[in-house]
Amino acid sequence: MDTLRLGVIGTGSVVREIYGHLYFRSEYSRNIRIHAICDASERALAEFGDQWKIPAERRHADYRTLIAAGGIDAVAVNTPDSLHLGPVMAALEAGLDVLLPKPTADKVVDAHAILGAVRSTGRFLGVDFHKREDPVVKEARARFAEGAYGTLQTSVWYMLDRLLVSDPNHAPRFFSSPDFAQKNSPVTFLTSHMADTFMHITRLRPLEVSAVGYRQKLPSLAPIAVQGYDLIDTAVLFEGGVLAHIITGWTMPNTANCLTLQTARLLFSEGMLELWQDHYGYHEVTGRGIEDRNVLFLNFGEGGLVSGYGMDSPGRIVGNILRHRCGAMGREERESLLSPFSLGFYTTLVCECAHESLKRGTAGGEGVILGAKVDARAFLAERIGAEADPYYA
After folding, report:
1. 20 to 30 A from 47, CA-CA: which of 162, 201, 242, 369?
2. Domain 135-296+346-392's class?
3. Which residues have CB under 8 Å from 173's CB, separation 6+?
4. What is the distance in angstroms between the CA of the first residue and the CA of the last residue of the chain?
């Protein structure tokens, strides 16, 4: 089996920016055949379907009809984070495998249910935390495992988007929904990347989470104001007393040198590690302005071929699904790929605890919320009871 017949559930911004390239313009495209698509938005469904010539009878407004129609091996669930559970569970229970963009879910109850369904159905699920395939992260993980820097003590992480990402007044609009930044926050969209990257490198589990949130820029937007967070500083205490401050937001001026500014500094007993330093390898000056392009993430080559770790990460998941379906994946490898760490369970836990911290917080000034400390293990036990114990065994 060398071709995966895929049903695409959700054809909006994440498909436009990333997965459309995977399906049709990457080295992995030869292993993918888009059989059917689904989206609640008629416009998004028509745009994707027309662009890639998906027959009208294979375009669905509901994921249930897509799954029931058959003819597929797996689904790619590209819905908003809060809507992952329904289509993922339906697909698994129908005997399908799943490709899912990060995070696994926005709530640990949902993530726990998904992990349980993967095991009970015997199907395969891969979550696309694409920064794990970033060469910078891969080397940092290996060097950390070697003990090259001594004992990790504390770290600071930044991931900041241009305002256009969260501004519904910008043309073209980044997200199809004008209230995306109101219903979501920088935590699930950006903190999830950095929290997962930290845990992927260190293999440490979270113990305590607190956050400070700022709502100052987005409410001032016009004519459409957004009652959402501009910036959130999430402090996480991990096992061994290790700290991580993860600062994320989406209100950097649109004149910033790239769409996403990211950097991290990790301090050890025997040294220091700096990641990215805002340099991505391609500095461009045109009449439109100055741009730093992250060619490691997406590299647009001759002939329209798109490569980079943004393709390698989901592409590897496609490969794993194909190997799993033909029985070429060993038990030990499967267990590793479907572990709570690999499937991003602790990332969901950090993000939900950050939101809970803000929910329990108090006003610290105009547009500022000072979050309360949240015990991650206790929070998890409140949500799923005694089934929380194995996650910290």
Report:
1. 162
2. alpha beta
3. none
4. 38
Tokens (6 digits) for 302: 């001759």
**154: phi then psi, degrees, rounded to nearest 5:** -150, 165
pLDDT at 205: 98
Judge contact between 119 and 338, C-beta under 8 A: yes
Other beta carbons within 10 angstroms of residue 337's beta carbon come to 17
Compute mean pLDDT per 10 residues along the chain, 393 residues long, and list them. 93 90 97 97 94 96 97 96 96 98 97 98 98 96 96 97 96 85 93 98 98 97 96 98 98 92 96 84 83 88 94 98 96 96 98 98 96 98 97 96
Give the residue among 229, 224, 248 at the shortest CA–CA distance from 171: 224
CA distance 104 to 102: 5
Alpha-carbon distances, residue 73 vs 98, 101, 200, 235 (angstroms) = 9, 18, 29, 41
CA distance 30 to 151: 44
Cα–Cα nearest to 243, from 146, 153, 366: 153
Question: 3-state SS of the chain?
Answer: CCCEEEEEECCCHHHHHHHHHHHHHCCCHHHEEEEEEECCCHHHHHHHHHHCCCCHHHEECCHHHHHHHCCCCEEEECCCHHHCHHHHHHHHHCCCEEEEECCCCCCHHHHHHHHHHHHHHCCCEEEECHHHHCHHHHHHHHHHHHCCCCCEEEEEEEEEEEHHHCCCCCCCCCCCCCCHHHHCCHHHHHHHHHHHHHHHHHCCCEEEEEEEEECCCHHHCCCCCCCCCCEEEEEEEEHHHCEEEEEEEEEECCCCCCCEEEEEEEEECCCEEEECCCCCEEEEEECCEEEEEECCCCEECHHHCEECHHHHHHHHHHHHHHHHHCCCCCHHHHHHHCCCCCCCHHHHHHHHHHHHHHHCCEEEECCEEECCCEEHHHHHHHHHHHHHHHHHC
Retrieve residue 55's tokens: 């027959």
Fold (topology level) of 4-129+304-328:
Rossmann fold (3.40.50)
Predicted pLDDT of residue 281: 74
For tokens 């741009």, what's the residue? 291
* Residue-level pLDDT at 278: 63
Domain boundaries defined on the chain? 4-129+304-328, 135-296+346-392
Q: Please tell me the predicted confidence (pLDDT) of residue 85.
A: 97
